[in-house]
Amino acid sequence: MSMAIGAGELRSGMKKQNTKTRNAKKKQRENIVVETVEPARKPDRRQFLGTVRNWSIAAAVVGVGGWFLVDDIRATSKELDLSQIGKGIPTVVQIHDPQCPKCQALQREARKAMKAFGADELRYLVANIREEAGRGLARAHQVGHVTLLLFDGDGKRQEIVVGQRTSKTLEHVFRRHVTNFGPKKNVAKQ
Questions:
Q1: Which long-range contacts (CB under 8 A, 24 or more apart) does 17-26 make?
Q2: Which of 3, 75, 140, 163 is the most exposed place for a label (fewest CB within 10 A)?
Q3: Which is more confidently placed, 126 or 62?
Q4: What integer best gives the mean pLDDT of the chain?
């Protein structure tokens, strides 16, 4: 029996063998996992100073934000003290619903207008109608929210301002109220 292999058969056998060898080598390469371990680096001075700087900036931002928050809470708690009506200083009381956008806009404008007055000249208070004291004051004066009540120093209501106004308009109204009902300055007679 002679073994005669044709050229075509030889090539196809080699192709199969070469393909098997290549696939086996490829699988071996895929199975090898190379672990590289970087040496532990000590933090250098630049990295340390950068971290300190970032934490310092973050602390400053949080501190300033906290200061404004505390200041706003203190101002708001003073504004809610309706017992200050009639304590010798003319007072503006806003009948306010905290969930009403019109009330919030009026409050912003009233606060802007109040910046023109000293604490001993005119007082600004808020009667929250979501609380019993605020509802009671609104009922007693038969008004709804988005309203300002202007009281003299003795606690007598002198004027009602209903609806939204600009800070300039409110400043003018408040100035007139202080002129009419504010503490009289003692003028020495000549």
A1: none
A2: 3
A3: 126
A4: 79
109 belongs to a structural domain = yes
* Those residues with Cβ within 8 angstroms of residue 123's Cβ, 6 or more apart along the chain or in another chain: 84, 89, 90, 91, 92
Residue 168: give the domain boundaries: 86-181
> Residue 190 pLDDT more than 50?
no
Residue 52 forms part of a structural domain: no
CB 94 within 8 A of CB 110: yes
Q: Distance between CA atoms of 146 and 26, rounded to whole angstroms?
A: 79
CATH code of the domain containing 102: 3.40.30.10
Q: How many domains does the chain have?
A: 1
Flag whether 95 is in a domain: yes
Question: pLDDT by residue (tens digit) across 170-188?
Answer: 999 999 999 998 876 434 4
| Residue 43 domain-assigned (yes or no) | no
Contact 117, 174 (CB under 8 A): yes
Residue 56, amino acid: S
CA 110/CA 126 separation, integer angstroms: 11
- Given a cut of 70, whether residue 74 has pLDDT beyond it is no
Contacts of 132 (CB under 8 A, 6+ apart): none
Decide: pTM greater than 0.70: no
